[in-house]
Amino acid sequence: MSEKTRLKCTIYVGGLDQAVTVQTLAEAFVPFGEVVDITLPKPDVPNSNELHRGFGYVEFDLPEDAKEAIDNMDGSELYGRTIKVAAAKPQKDSNEGLGSKTAIWEQEGYLSKYAVSEEDKLGAEESRMDDEPSQDPMRRLEELDVAGPKPE
């Protein structure tokens, strides 16, 4: 199964109580279709008393099952807490965006979005070449025969 197809079959479940387990999610979502995989991300701090980060992902066999689960379970209650159920979004690359250690203008996504045409690049390079100092320090001073502001 391709990554894009797999993403269409995966839902995000947020607002989970710490008592919720993989088994609990399986039992809650099996009425909507065959559950392929369930993930409950662990907390960032390894010595934390929390079992998971309060959200999880449920992957179904068919995209239609995922849509039906979203329609029926969003806003429902699980262990006394209202849960949020939505389509899963693709995971961001850690080298992209504001959390990256790479400068934003050096990232591939930025360049593809804000790159200029070849014609503009050539024009900018030509103007840079014109601005470079030449051997003659008096270059472009031919019209200045008098010091001070130009008379009107």
Model description:
Residues 116-143 have a biased composition (Basic and acidic residues). This is RRM domain-containing protein. This protein is of the alpha+beta class and 152 residues long. Helix content is 30%, strand content 16%. It has a domain at 3-87: 2-Layer Sandwich (Alpha-Beta Plaits). It has helices at residues 3-8, 22-29, 63-73, 108-114, 118-131; strands at 10-14, 35-39, 55-60, 77-78, 81-82, 84-87. A four-stranded antiparallel β-sheet has the order 2-3-1-6. It has a two-stranded antiparallel sheet with strand order 4-5. A hairpin with a 2-residue loop joins strand 4 (77-78) and strand 5. The protein starts with a helix and ends in a 21-residue tail after the last helix.
Keywords:
RRM_dom; 16% strand; 30% helix; PPIE_RRM; 6 strands; RNA-binding; alpha+beta; RBD_domain_sf; two-stranded antiparallel ribbon
Largest sheet: 4 strands, antiparallel
| CATH architecture name of the domain at 3-87 | 2-Layer Sandwich
For this structure, the CATH topology of the domain at 3-87 is Alpha-Beta Plaits
Report the total helices. 5
Q: Shape, please?
A: elongated
* The CATH superfamily title of the domain at 3-87: RRM (RNA recognition motif) domain
Structural class: alpha+beta
What is the top-level CATH class of the domain at 3-87?
Alpha Beta
User: Could you tell me the strand content as a percent range?
Assistant: 15-25%
Low-pLDDT residue intervals, each spanning 5 or more residues? none
Q: What is the helix/strand order?
A: HEHEEHEEEHH
Taking all residues together, what is the mean pLDDT?
Answer: 81
Fraction of residues in H or I helices: 25-40%
**How is the largest sheet built, in terms of strand order?**
2-3-1-6
**Radius of gyration over all CA atoms, rounded:** 29 Å
E-strand count:
6
Q: In angstroms, what separates the terminal alpha carbons?
A: 76 Å
